[in-house]
Amino acid sequence: MTDDLLGRHRSVLPDWLALYYDEPIEITHGEGRHVWDSRGKRYLDFFGGILTTMTAHALPEVTKAVSEQAGRILHSSTLYLNRPMIELAERIAQLSGIPNARVFFTTSGTEANDTALLLATAYRRSNTILAMRNSYHGRSFSAVGITGNRGWSPTSLSPLQTLYVHGGVRTRGPFAHLDDARFVAACVEDLEDLLGHTRPPAALIAEPIQGVGGFTSPPDGLYAALREVLHERGILWIADEVQTGWGRTGEHFWGWQAHGHNGPPDIVTFAKGLGNGMSIGGVVARAEIMNCLDANSISTFGGTQITMAAGLANLTYLLEHDLQGNARRVGGMLIERLRAVAAQVPEVREVRGRGLMIGIELTRPGTDQAHPEAAAAVLEAAREGGLLIGKGGGHDTTALRIAPPLSLNVAEAEEGAAILERALRSIP
User: Fold this and answer.
1) CB-CB contact of 397 with 362 (8 Å)
2) Do the strands 203-206 and 128-132 form a parallel or antiparallel pair, or are they unpaired?
3) Taking CA atoms, which of 18, 103, 148, 250 is between 20 and 30 Å from 293?
4) How far apart are CA 276 and CA 32, in angstroms?
5) Rounded mean pLDDT of the chain?
6) Residue 360, CA distances (Å) to 93, 152, 216, 279, 352 in order
7) CA distance 372 to 376
8) Which tens digits make up the pLDDT trace of 17-37?
9) What are the tens digits of pLDDT across the range 43-74?
């Protein structure tokens, strides 16, 4: 059955639609932190549908909210008053930290970032965007155009002029040898120099922790330091929180808060985990930025009632059960456990991250060169052992990505770490 499904997949879907594993699996159902494939094998899920199953699979509170809303109405569009959308927007505006915030809902993180770029360029009347090297912001034409990761940017065509800034990767690049304070100072100096050579940009867009790029991040405070330079020139700061939002980093509810001593971003984008699998994205911005468009706009499916019901139930559960605190505690333990294992595996260059957003960078022993064969081998061995993880990386890097649901408990973290240890030790 699986082989037949794979053949059907290949006959009707694009070649560039990647599948994990030499023998791809069909996931049929899940519960808690586990999923099952079509052959009945159970897996501990340490990737959550690419960081999307944020709380748990088949969370009763979310499934109940979705079922009850489905029995009333699924959808009406933004042309009508929508109580669940307004209620969720009120909560997100309050949680965002942005003064006088307005919220616009989309169906994905790609669409959220696309909207943020539209707002920033319209508000600033500039089509120049600053982005981080090694970044990823989605699959739309504008988002691909600003993505600083060649592996995920299939065209050089773009409606925007993009200039790439240093700082998203702490342990690689021309400033890697510097201590944190000098690293930040060098990135600020580079930004100031860059701005002297170009027309005024609309915004800097940055992931607090780069997701697809392998869970890399700068020292805390970098984006606050860059913001001083931006603010002096009226340039906006867009925080792409599609992967880092909702407490996943443990220490903060939003990733930008590690860089917040100069205030919140002008625009925040979000998606993935809010819906716990339902398709929700969105943008939060100050009112004057959100309201700057001088033409009509709607969202047919953004803010639809059934996804808003899911988001409300999921966010309520996350806050009431302090899943951010759980991510900090269990994630901290998991990181230390993996670092102890990594010290004995020559292919592991670094274990990094915070909370339940953890990257393991693999290189050829004795070098800084990417080791994609090792990543593929670990991915397969982990699956065989009953664990699902992800992978990523950018310029000559290879990383494993670990991002379980935020309700992960200590016993499950230990179980996953043990499977990962065996997989890492089995690298040929």
Assistant:
1) no
2) parallel
3) 148
4) 12
5) 96
6) 34, 20, 10, 28, 6
7) 6
8) 989 999 999 999 999 999 999
9) 999 999 999 999 999 999 999 999 999 999 99
Give φ, ψ of 216 to 5 degrees.
-90, 155
Structure-derived torsion over alpha carbons of residues 346, 350, 355, 356, reported in degrees to the nearest 10: -60
Show the tokens assigned to 263.
């205030």
Q: Which is it for strands 27-31 and 34-37: parallel, antiparallel or unpaired? A: antiparallel
Handedness of CA 177, 183, 189, 194 (dihedral sign): positive
C-alpha to C-alpha distance for 122 and 47, rounded to whole angstroms:
36
In terms of phi and psi (left: phi > 0; alpha: psi -120 to 50; beta: otherwise), the region of 422 is alpha
13, two tokens: 């879907």
What does R_g of the chain's alpha carbons equal in angstroms? 21
- Looking at this protein, which amino acid is placed at residue 212? V
Compute the distance between CA of residue 395 and CA of residue 326 in angstroms, rounded to an integer. Answer: 33
pTM: 0.96
Number of Cβ within a 10 Å radius of residue 39: 10
The answer to whether the CB of 43 falls within 8 A of the CB of 383 is yes
Which of 338, 307, 345, 312 is CA-nearest to residue 404? 338
Picking from 407, 426, 408, the residue whose alpha carbon sits closest to that of residue 416 is 408
* C-beta of residue 377 within 8 angstroms of C-beta of residue 428: yes
What's the token pair of residue 24? Answer: 């791809």
Cα gap 155→397, rounded to integer Å: 21
Residues 108 and 282: their CA atoms lie apart, in Å, by 7
What is the rounded distance in angstroms from the CA atom of residue 239 to the CA atom of residue 10?
Answer: 36
